[in-house]
Amino acid sequence: MKKFIAGIVLSLLVFMASASSVSANHSWGGYHWARQTPSFSLKLGDNVSSEWDSILATTSSDWSQSNVLDTTIVGGQGGKNCRPTSGRVEVCNRKYGNNGWLGIAQIWITGGDHIAQGTTKLNDTYFGTAKYNTVAWRNLVSCQEVGHTFGLDHQDENFNNANLNTCMDYTSNPESNQHPNAHDYEELGIIYAHTDSFTSVDMTTAQIASRLGQLASSQSLDDPREWGRLVSQNGGIATFERDLGFGNKIVTHIIWAE
């Protein structure tokens, strides 16, 4: 009887460990910022209007609860076109037009999987409508798109499933999906468990230009024709890749407006 009970306990422990590992497996293509230390701080460039300031502050505060990542809001350098800045993420909003997308996350990859710079764009053409002009929708999209620039993917991509209480869960009802959850922080810990031989955080413009070429900062990439090939699509989300050669590329994640 004792052996039987011990076997049940062991099975439960194995199941619990397995469930924990399965729950945090939403790395986005293995993309990550190169660092030489286990934890790091990443700058979020503030190119947003006053109505987005509190949303960006919430996004930054939420992600900074991670044990491996701190985000700091700094003055934006993206300008009107939200141009990327080496070694950081520029966050922008404006009326990008009735082009179908609600939010965009773009990351510039060097060496196959290292993020060198990123942008998050929030389309006020849609956020100005009654459907999307809510704190819940703004928090969801800002949190999710910035989360992608750290190397996180979605926990769930079926918008008809019950909410997982994380902004990394695609949904038509954002009320309970406005912030990260424990599995997001767990995944960040997994992604950044190792260190690299160099750092792409705060990488200078000259350094990134030598790796990515002039395309790195010369285009805003708002136009779908500039995103490269479609590599995945699932309902209201899509991912594109533009190959720059030699292991370098630009990856664009889209949330489509419904």
Q: What would you note in describing this structure?
A:
- With 258 residues, this protein is of the alpha/beta class.
- The protein has one domain: Collagenase (Catalytic Domain) (3-Layer(aba) Sandwich), CATH 3.40.390.10.
- Helices cover 29% and strands 26% of the residues.
- The protein contains seven helices and nine strands.
- It has helices at 2-23, 50-63, 124-127, 135-148, 182-191, 205-212, 215-218; strands at 32-33, 40-47, 69-75, 89-94, 101-110, 114-123, 229-234, 237-245, 248-256.
- Strands 1, 2, 3, 4, 5, 6, 7, 8 and 9 form a nine-stranded mixed beta sheet that branches.
- Strand 8 and strand 9 (248-256) form a beta hairpin.
Quick recap:
The protein is about 30% helix and about 25% strand.
CATH class: Alpha Beta
Structural class: alpha/beta
Average pLDDT score: 86
CATH fold topology: Collagenase (Catalytic Domain)
